[in-house]
Amino acid sequence: MVTPGADLGKSARKWHGLTIKIIAPALHDTRLKQTTGMITPGTNRDKSVNAVSIIGLHDHPYVVTGRLAGVISIQAATKYIAGHSDAVIGTITARTEALFRRIKDTTMAFGDVAAPDTSYLALRGLRSMAARLRQQQTAGLQIAGWLRGRPEVKRVLYPALPGDPGHAIWKRDFTGACSLFSIVLHTGDEAAVARMVDAYRYFKIGASWGGFESLVIPAYPAQLRTAVPWTDPGFVLRYHVGLEAPEDLRADLEEGFERLRQALC
């Protein structure tokens, strides 16, 4: 959890008696409790948040198994649900009607409501979400597997990929995957990596994901990680594989690696 999320967590603890804990993904097994009400991704920058009920997880609810179906699910519908990079909207889903009413009353009191046109765009995206997720999972696995074999790449960080350290947990808890993953390069030369990334034809610079287009953005996990410190000196890039033809994306990446090689010479 990052600020202002940590501040919100402290407020939730104060107002509703919630407890919060930031842990590494590998510890999900041992930390899930009967009282666990919410699972959320993130890293904690605020050392004062120290409690037990919110643990870190990152994937789309469409592919989460019943084992991880919590009491409350909070999702960024901006991404795969809307699916077209043209809306900003979130969802809160509650297991019971009574809990849903409490949440709705609170959000209404704060004035947190989605605009009608934005809601329409999200409903439109839901109609094609299953087909898009299947296509993007297939393409994501293809591209991630290809990247794993590249000499420029030290590691591919994608739990859905067989051989990934988190694959067993992913296989147990999920029925599918999205197309978001990261790679760790052998080089840490930021200027050389910039030459590679800036001239991509299909992978645009972008911080969100879940839309139709492929995206890439530099990542700096050492500045954010607290549960498990990040010590790898290799440069990290986060990719989102969109709906373009996988062979076109591979060609774009291959041209980028050639630019990287020339920059490092």
Describe the structure.
The protein has a five-stranded mixed sheet with strand order 5-6-9-8-7, with helices on one face. Helix 6 packs antiparallel against helix 7 (246-264). It is globular and about 60 Å long. It has helices spanning 5-16, 28-31, 97-110, 116-148, 167-173, 190-198, 246-264, and strands at residues 38-39, 54-55, 72-75, 91-94, 153-157, 180-185, 204-205, 215-219, 236-240. The protein folds into two domains: 5-116, no CATH class; 128-264, Aspartate Aminotransferase, domain 1. The protein is an alpha/beta fold and 265 residues long. It is built from seven helices and nine strands, in the order ααββββααβαβαβββα.
Question: What's this entry about, in short?
Answer:
The chain has helices at residues 5-16, 28-31, 97-110, 116-148, 167-173, 190-198, 246-264; strands at 38-39, 54-55, 72-75, 91-94, 153-157, 180-185, 204-205, 215-219, 236-240.
Gyration radius, rounded: 20 Å
**Approximate shape:** globular
| Total helical elements | 7
CATH topology of the largest domain: Aspartate Aminotransferase, domain 1
Q: Helical amount among residues, as a percent range? A: 25-40%
Order of helices and strands: HHEEEEHHEHEHEEEH
Distance between the termini: 40 Å
- Structurally, the number of domains stands at 2
Write down the CATH class of the largest domain: Alpha Beta
Number of strands: 9
The CATH architecture of the largest domain would be: Alpha-Beta Complex
Taking pLDDT < 50 over at least 5 consecutive residues as the criterion, the unreliable ranges are 1-8, 41-59
State the fourth-level CATH superfamily of the largest domain: Aspartate Aminotransferase, domain 1
